[in-house]
C-alpha cells in the first residue's frame, strides 16, 4: 500500500515539483519563502480550475479546446454586465458566470453527444465562434478598470485566512471535484466511459451523456474562471487568455491524465498545473529567457508522456506457465 | 477412413500444395491434430467442418501466419517451410479472406500492386504499366472495372474481385477462399462461381472454405472434412451426398462431459413477440422459463447476436414486445434492460466487458451502482461488500479488490466481468458464445457455472456456434438462419444432424 502510494504518478510529480523548487532556491532562495509560494499558487489558480474541467473531459476520451475562449467570452459578458449594473451582488455575478460557461459547455456536449462530431473538431469550431461572439458583443472595445465597480474587482483579491479568494476558489474546486470523481456515480461513470466505452454501454451507462456532463463541467469552470480572470486583471478584451487552452491541456498531460481516456485524477491535474505554474513564475526571477520557458514546458510534456506510456504499457499475453505468478 | 478409397483418378497427380500430418497447438488447445490436405491444379477442393474444426488455422498455416508444430507442408511434393507470409506468397499461395484486407483510399490498380508495383526510372512507380497490367488481370477475371477508380467507390462484390485480382497479380498457383460468399448477395454469388470456374480452367488449385452445402455441391470437385482439429475424410464431391457429408462433419464418438443437472423448469419469465429489424432479423418470437437454458444455434452471421443486442436495448428494433414476468417492459437502453432484470454478457468480454484501468471492485459494482449508492453518492463499504460477495462466489483469487483489473490474467478478468452481471441480481442472463476461445478446463468451469445458475432458477439464453455445447447444455434450442428463426428443437429432435440441416438450410 505504502509502496503504491510512493510509486504513484502524483507522488512522482510532487517529487519533481519539489526538486524543481529546490533547484530554483539555490539560485534565488526567496522563491521558496511561504509568501512567495502562496503568490505562485494564487497565480496558478486559474490554470488549476481549468485543468480540473479539462481533466474530466479528457477522461471521457474527449478534448475541450474552447475553454480559453469560453473564459474570455464569459469574462467579457460579466464585465459588460457590471458596467450596466455596477451594484449587482458578487454572488449573482458568480452564478451568471458559472451558468454562462456551463451553457457553452453544454453546446459542445450536445454536438458531441447527439451529432457524434469528433470533440476536437467541435471545440476547435466553438473556440473560434466564442471569440467571434466576444467581438460582436463588445464591438472590439475593451472594458477597462475604471469602468468596473470596486466590488467586482475586489472579490478575487480579498483575503481570507491570509489567502486571496482566487486561491480559495481553486481549493474549493479541488475538494468538490475530488469528491465528485471518487465518491459519486457521476464521477465513476466518467472513468468507466473513458476506460472502455463498449463495456460501459453494455453496463447500462450512456457514453454520450457522460461526455455531455464532462463538457458542461469544463464549461462551468471556464465560466467561473472567466469572471475571476477579468476582475483580477481588471480588464476585458477579445484576446484575453489567448492560447491558454494549450497550457490547460499541457497541465493535464503532465499530471498523468491519459489522452486515451479513463486514467487520471484531480490531484494529478492540480500538480500538472502547479508544475507549469512554478516554471512560469520561477524562470524570469532566475534570469532565464521566456523562450527557454516554452522549451522547458514542452520538454516536461514529452517526458510526462514517456513516463506514463511506460507505466501503462501493455504487458502482453502470459503464455509461458513459468511466467504466470499466482494471482 | 472409408472415404480414402474414393481417391482414384487423380492419385497419380502430384498435389501442388499438401499438408502431411500437420499439428498446431496453442496453450491448452490442439487446433490441428495431424491433419492432411491436398490441393490439385485445376481443381476446387472444399474444406468442410463446423465452427472450431480448424479451418481458419489451416488457412493461417498455409499462408505462413502460423508455423506448424509438427508435420510437413509440401509444394509440388517438396517439403517447404513458410517462415513469413511473404514466403507463402513467393511460393504462389494467396488467400482471399472473409473481410477483404484492402485500402479504401487507394485506386484499384494501387490495391492490386501494393508492395510489388512495377518500377520505372529512378525506382519510381511506373503508373502506365501498373494500370495496363491491372486492366489485363481484371479483364482476365471478367471484371469490368477501371483501375483508376478508388476502392472506396466499389461495392463489396467488386472489392472481392479486386482482392482476387490482387491474388492473381503475384502469379498465384493456389488460391484460398475463406467463406468468400458470406457478405455477397445472390447475383454476386453467381458471379463469384463463374470466376471460380475461370480460375479452375486456368489451372489454379483452389481451396474453397464454406459452410453452405449448396455451394460445395455446386462448384467443388473434391472435399476434405475436418472435425475438432482432426482430418476425417476426403474424396470426390460427385461420389458423396449431403447426408454422408453431414455425418462426417458432426459424427463424434465421445462427446465432452457436460455437467448433469436436475431440470427444474419453472414459470414463464420472458416472452418475446414479433421482433423485427429492417436489415438484421425478422419475426422473432419465443418464450423462456425460470431455470431453463435456451440455446440459440446458427451459423456465424445468422443474426443471433444482432437480435440479442436489440433485446438488450443496444440497437433499436422496428417493432417487438418484451414481457418479463407477464408485464410489458419497454427496453430502450441497456440501463432499462438491467433494471428489468435482463443482462447480456457479450461475446468479446475483453473489449466489451472489462474496464482494465479501474480496480476490481469498481468493475464488479459498475452495473449495480444504484444499490451501492445513496442519492448518487457512492458508499465504498457497500461496494466492497458487494464485490467481495460476488468475487468469492466465482472463486476469484486476487491479492486485493483494490488492484487494477488490468493486472489480472484473462481468465480472472472474465470472472470479474461475470461477477459484475451476477451482482445486478438478474432474472434472465444472455451469454453470447460463453466459451469461445478458452481452453477446455475453463470451458468445463463455465458450463458448470451455467448449470448452477439455471439450478438457482435463473433463466439462461446461450448463444453458441458449437454443437457439442448446444447439445450438452440446452434444454431447448432455437435455430436461426439468415435473420429468421427456422426451428425450435428439444429432446429427441435435438441431434447434430437436425441442427446442421436447419442452420444450413437443407
Commentary on this structure:
The complex is a heterodimer of chains A (327) and B (506). Chain A has helices at 2-7, 9-27, 34-59, 67-84, 90-114, 119-138, 150-154, 165-183, 185-195, 197-202, 207-233, 244-254, 266-285, 290-311; strands spanning 159-160, 163-164. With 327 residues, chain A is an all-alpha fold. Chain A has a domain at 53-242. Chain A is globular and about 55 Å long. Chain A starts with a helix and ends in a 16-residue tail after the last helix. Chain B is α/β, with parallel strands linked by helices. Chain B has a 6-stranded mixed beta sheet with strand order 6-7-8-3-9-10, with helices on both faces. In chain B, a hairpin with a 2-residue loop joins strand 14 (319-324) and strand 15 (327-328). Chain B is globular and about 75 Å long. Chains A and B meet through helix 9 and helix 10 of A and helix 10, strand 18 and helix 14 of B.
How do you describe this structure in short?
The complex is a heterodimer of chains A (327) and B (506). By secondary structure, chain A is an all-alpha fold.
Amino acid at each position: 500500500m505504502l509502496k503504491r502510494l510512493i510509486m504513484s504518478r502524483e507522488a512522482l510529480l510532487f517529487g519533481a515539483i519539489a526538486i524543481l523548487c529546490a533547484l530554483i532556491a539555490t539560485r534565488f532562495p526567496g522563491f521558496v519563502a511561504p509568501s512567495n509560494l502562496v503568490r505562485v499558487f494564487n497565480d496558478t489558480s486559474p490554470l488549476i480550475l481549468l485543468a480540473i474541467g479539462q481533466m474530466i473531459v479528457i477522461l471521457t476520451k474527449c478534448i475541450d479546446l474552447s475553454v480559453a475562449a469560453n473564459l474570455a467570452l464569459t469574462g467579457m459578458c460579466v464585465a459588460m454586465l457590471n458596467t450596466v449594473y455596477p451594484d449587482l451582488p458578487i454572488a449573482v455575478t458568480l452564478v451568471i458566470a458559472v451558468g454562462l460557461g456551463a451553457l457553452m459547455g453544454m453546446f459542445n456536449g450536445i454536438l458531441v453527444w447527439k451529432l457524434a462530431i469528433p470533440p476536437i473538431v467541435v471545440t476547435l469550431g466553438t473556440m473560434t465562434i466564442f471569440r467571434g461572439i466576444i467581438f460582436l458583443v463588445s464591438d472590439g472595445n475593451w472594458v477597462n478598470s475604471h469602468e468596473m465597480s470596486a466590488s467586482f474587482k475586489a472579490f478575487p483579491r480579498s483575503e481570507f485566512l491570509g489567502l486571496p479568494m482566487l486561491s480559495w476558489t481553486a481549493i474549493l474546486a479541488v475538494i468538490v471535484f475530488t469528491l465528485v470523481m471518487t465518491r459519486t456515480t457521476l464521477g465513476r461513470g466518467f472513468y468507466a466511459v473513458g476506460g472502455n466505452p463498449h463495456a460501459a454501454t453494455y453496463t447500462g451507462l450512456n457514453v454520450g451523456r457522460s461526455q455531455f456532463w464532462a463538457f458542461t463541467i469544463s464549461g462551468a469552470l471556464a465560466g467561473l474562471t472567466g469572471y475571476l480572470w477579468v476582475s483580477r486583471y481588471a480588464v476585458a478584451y477579445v484576446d484575453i487568455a489567448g492560447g491558454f487552452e494549450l497550457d490547460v491541456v499541457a497541465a493535464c498531460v503532465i499530471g498523468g491524465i491519459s489522452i486515451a481516456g479513463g486514467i487520471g485524477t484531480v490531484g494529478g491535474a492540480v500538480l500538472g498545473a502547479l508544475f507549469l505554474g512554478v516554471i512560469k513564475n520561477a524562470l524570469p526571477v532566475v534570469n532565464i529567457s521566456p523562450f527557454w520557458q516554452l522549451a522547458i514546458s514542452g520538454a516536461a510534456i514529452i517526458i510526462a508522456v514517456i513516463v506514463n506510456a511506460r507505466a501503462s504499457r501493455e504487458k502482453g499475453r502470459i503464455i509461458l506457465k513459468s511466467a504466470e505468478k499466482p494471482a | 477412413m472409408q472415404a480414402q478409397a474414393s481417391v482414384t483418378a487423380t492419385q497419380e497427380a502430384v498435389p501442388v500444395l499438401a499438408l502431411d500430418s500437420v499439428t498446431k497447438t496453442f496453450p491448452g488447445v490442439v487446433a490441428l491434430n495431424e491433419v492432411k490436405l491436398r490441393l490439385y491444379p485445376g481443381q476446387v477442393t472444399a474444406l468442410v467442418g463446423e465452427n472450431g474444426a480448424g479451418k481458419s488455422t489451416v488457412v493461417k498455416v498455409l499462408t505462413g501466419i502460423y508455423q506448424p508444430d509438427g508435420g510437413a507442408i509440401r509444394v509440388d511434393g517438396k517439403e517447404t517451410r513458410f517462415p513469413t507470409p511473404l514466403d507463402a506468397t513467393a511460393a504462389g499461395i494467396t488467400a482471399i479472406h472473409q473481410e477483404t484486407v484492402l485500402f479504401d483510399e487507394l485506386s484499384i490498380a494501387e490495391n492490386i500492386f501494393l508492395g510489388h508495383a512495377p518500377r520505372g526510372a529512378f525506382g519510381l512507380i511506373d503508373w502506365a504499366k501498373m494500370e495496363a497490367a491491372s486492366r489485363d488481370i481484371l479483364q482476365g477475371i471478367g471484371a469490368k472495372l477501371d483501375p483508376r477508380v478508388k476502392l472506396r467507390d466499389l461495392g463489396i462484390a467488386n472489392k472481392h474481385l479486386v482482392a482476387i485480382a490482387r491474388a492473381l497479380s503475384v502469379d498465384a498457383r493456389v488460391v484460398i477462399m475463406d467463406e468468400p460468399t458470406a457478405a455477397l448477395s445472390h447475383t454476386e454469388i453467381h458471379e463469384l462461381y463463374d470466376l471460380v470456374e475461370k480460375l479452375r480452367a486456368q489451372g489454379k488449385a483452389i481451396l474453397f472454405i464454406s459452410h453452405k452445402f449448396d455451394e460445395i455441391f455446386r462448384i467443388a470437385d473434391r472435399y476434405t472434412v475436418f472435425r475438432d482439429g482432426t482430418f476425417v475424410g476426403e474424396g470426390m464431391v460427385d461420389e458423396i451426398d449431403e447426408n454422408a457429408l453431414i455425418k462426417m462433419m458432426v459424427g463424434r464418438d465421445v462427446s465432452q462431459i457436460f455437467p448433469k443437472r436436475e431440470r427444474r423448469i419453472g414459470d414463464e419469465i420472458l416472452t418475446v413477440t414479433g421482433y423485427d429489424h429492417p436489415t438484421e432479423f425478422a419475426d422473432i418470437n419465443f418464450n423462456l422459463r425460470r431455470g431453463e437454458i435456451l440455446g440459440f444455434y446458427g451459423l456465424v452471421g445468422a443474426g443471433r447476436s444482432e437480435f440479442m443486442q436489440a433485446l438488450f436495448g443496444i440497437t433499436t428494433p422496428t417493432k417487438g414486445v418484451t414481457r418479463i414476468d407477464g408485464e410489458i417492459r419497454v427496453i430502450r437502453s441497456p440501463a432499462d434492460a438491467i433494471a428489468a432484470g435482463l443482462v447480456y454478457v457479450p461475446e468479446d468480454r475483453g473489449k466489451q466487458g472489462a474496464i482494465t484501468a479501474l480496480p476490481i471492485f469498481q468493475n464488479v459494482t459498475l452495473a449495480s451502482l444504484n444499490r451501492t449508492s445513496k442519492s448518487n453518492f457512492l458508499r465504498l463499504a457497500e461496494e466492497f461488500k458487494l464485490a467481495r460477495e460476488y468475487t468469492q462466489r466465482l472463486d476469484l483469487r486476487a491479492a486485493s479488490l483494490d488492484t487494477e483489473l488490468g493486472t489480472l490474467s484473462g481468465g480472472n478478468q472474465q470472472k470479474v466481468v461475470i461477477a459484475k452481471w451476477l451482482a445486478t441480481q438478474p432474472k434472465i442472463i444472455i451469454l453470447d458464445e460463453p466459451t469461445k476461445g478458452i481452453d477446455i478446463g475453463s470451458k468445463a468451469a463455465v458450463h458448470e457455472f451455467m448449470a448452477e445458475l439455471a439450478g438457482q432458477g435463473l433463466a439462461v439464453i446461450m448463444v453458441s456456434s458449437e454443437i457439442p455445447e448446444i447439445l450438452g447444455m440446452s434444454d431447448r434450442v432455437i435455430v436461426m438462419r439468415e435473420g429468421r428463426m427456422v426451428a425450435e428443437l428439444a429432446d429427441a429432435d435435438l441431434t447434430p444432424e437436425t441442427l446442421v440441416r436447419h442452420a444450413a438450410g437443407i
